Amino acid sequence: xxxxxxxxxxxxxxxxxxxxxxxxxxxxxxxxxxxxxxxxxxxxxxxxxxxxxxxx
Length: 56
Fold this sequence. Notes:
Blueprint: H1 3-11, H2 20-30, H3 34-44, H4 48-55
C-alpha cells in the first residue's frame, strides 16, 4: 500500500477492524486498547464519529 492509499484509508469515516494499520492508527489516536475499540465497534458500529461519542 502506498502512502496515498494509507492516508486516504485512515481518514475515512469508518474503521475496518480487519485492517491492522487502521486499528493501530485509531487505538493510538483515540488512546484506547484494541479491545476497547472492538467493544465500541460492537456497540455502535464502525463510524468514527459514533465511536468517539461512545468512548467519551
